[in-house]
Amino acid sequence: MLNLLFAILTSAGIFITFKYLEKYKVDILLAIIINYITAAICGYLLSDKAFVVQNIIHENWFNISILIGALFIVVFFIIGRSTQKAGISVTTLASKMSFVLPLLFSILYYQEAVSTNKILGIVIAISAVLLSIYKGKSDKLNRQYIWLPVLLFFGAGTVDSLVKYAQQEFLSNGGTEQFSTLLFAIAGISGILTLLIKRESLLKLLQVKVLIGGLVLGLVNFGSLYFLIASLNSSGFDSSVVFSIINIGIVACSVLIGLGIFKEKLNKVNLLGIVLAFIAIFILTN
């Protein structure tokens, strides 16, 4: 249960960090790059095995870590583009609801048992997410770009599904630190290449506020992936239950943090969503 709790708290930490990055007008792309470099260093320092490139390329998880690392950056760009073109509300909805894909993947591909309690808990969990992020007056949806949030839904869901696959097939007996190191390193390199393609100076990465913001973001980002895999390995719950608990926990935690720290206003529907989130967690863990 501690791994589940830490997975929720570190993921919520990403939300807090992004809020402060926005507040202090830190370039998000630059902070994201520093974040991935920081996360890769965390994985390297925590690994009990030497990170030897010649050995890494022969690991059975090498190819999938490259794929996930590249998808990290791609999904990030889709989030930014979708927010600008399709609208904030629909982008948030697509991002939060993407947990349905790894949930279904775990049930269908790995033939996880489906009980009445699990179905009830998952339905309440999905309802909790929808209600927690509901806004009475949402921003106008630009239907011309509806394909962007749809792409985000499948992109983010695919990333989590691939993480589940890697954990189940390759990481159940260790190797999480090395896997994470390579994954985040690939994402960081992809980000640097993006800067070069845009012909922007790499010296921008050395701005103090970018370094601080990226460092904090990298620490919680690494923690979110590390504790997600640890939860899948050792929580004792089915993967579908783990994904449900973590995602509704993140949403509920983020909403409460927004209320307490950033003084964001909640409507009655949001409050109902938070109540349902805790009910769903209770059902899924019993």
UniProtKB/TrEMBL annotation:
Transmembrane segments: 6-21, 28-46, 61-79, 86-110, 116-134, 146-167, 179-198, 210-229, 241-262, 269-285
Entry keyword set: Membrane, Transmembrane, Transmembrane helix
Protein name: EamA domain-containing protein
High-level lineage: Bacteria, Pseudomonadati, Bacteroidota, Bacteroidia, Marinilabiliales
